[in-house]
Amino acid sequence: VMSILLHGDAAFAGQGIVYETFHLSDLPSYTTHGTVHVVVNNQIGFTTDPRMARSSPYPTDVARVVNAPIFHVNADDPEAVVYVCNVAAEWRSTFHKDVVVDLVCYRRNGHNEMDEPMFTQPLMYKQIRKQKPVLQKYAELLISQGVVNQLEYEEEIAKYDKICEEAHARSKDEKILHIKHWLDSPWPGFFTLDGQPRSMTCPSTGLNEEDLTHIGQVASSVPVEDFTIHGG
């Protein structure tokens, strides 16, 4: 078994659980035999600039508490990332100690549907919009080296798109959710024979639909007249 943890940069620097996890790496009566920590470092915590979120230059500095080696790698270079990940796996396998891979990258879109990064990070996001996506960059490199040609690249993209489109189409046909497919040991008596929960009913929440509609409309309305609200 190999323990691999995936972190965001702001979470890695700011969550106590990360510090606690490092200290599980080498206890006398309990050990993980080393964890590979992969930090997806998109250089922004939700909307916060790193300078405003932590006091150390790197989000990975917390790993120094157990002297874990830290590899900072440019995520725009897939081959370098694979190389570093192999080194990290070998380190962990050989020395049974934690190791950190810091994928220095960027986030092209917002943190979620509510987040428009151009509001809080306009300079950074002007740069990101000019940046070639990593797939395009790597494809151009391989084509220039003669490893693949343009047609092969386009065929691979089409093949992948087809897989996604077919899965999307299949998802619309799914009428029954087979809980037993992903639950290892369903509790006896909880499901019916075909793996469905015995009851899908839920008790009254105590509010009628009119009240809920009223609250929803008030919450989603603009209190001032002639006020243009941002579409996002």
TrEMBL record:
Keywords assigned: Calcium, Glycolysis, Magnesium, Mitochondrion, Nucleus, Oxidoreductase, Thiamine pyrophosphate, Transit peptide
Organism: Piaya cayana (Common squirrel cuckoo)
Name of this chain's protein: oxoglutarate dehydrogenase (succinyl-transferring)
Listed transmembrane segments: none
Dehydrogenase E1 component domain boundaries: 2-179
Gene Ontology BP, a term: tricarboxylic acid cycle
Cofactor(s) the record lists: thiamine diphosphate; Mg(2+)
InterPro entries reported for this sequence: 2oxoglutarate_DH_E1 (IPR011603), DH_E1 (IPR001017), THDP-binding (IPR029061)
Catalysed transformations (reactions): N(6)-[(R)-lipoyl]-L-lysyl-[protein] + 2-oxoglutarate + H(+) = N(6)-[(R)-S(8)-succinyldihydrolipoyl]-L-lysyl-[protein] + CO2
GO cellular component, one term: oxoglutarate dehydrogenase complex
Chain's gene name: Ogdh_1
UniProt family annotation: Belongs to the alpha-ketoglutarate dehydrogenase family.
Cellular localisation: Mitochondrion; Nucleus
Domain of life of the source: Eukaryota
Documented EC number(s): 1.2.4.2
A GO MF label: oxoglutarate dehydrogenase (succinyl-transferring) activity
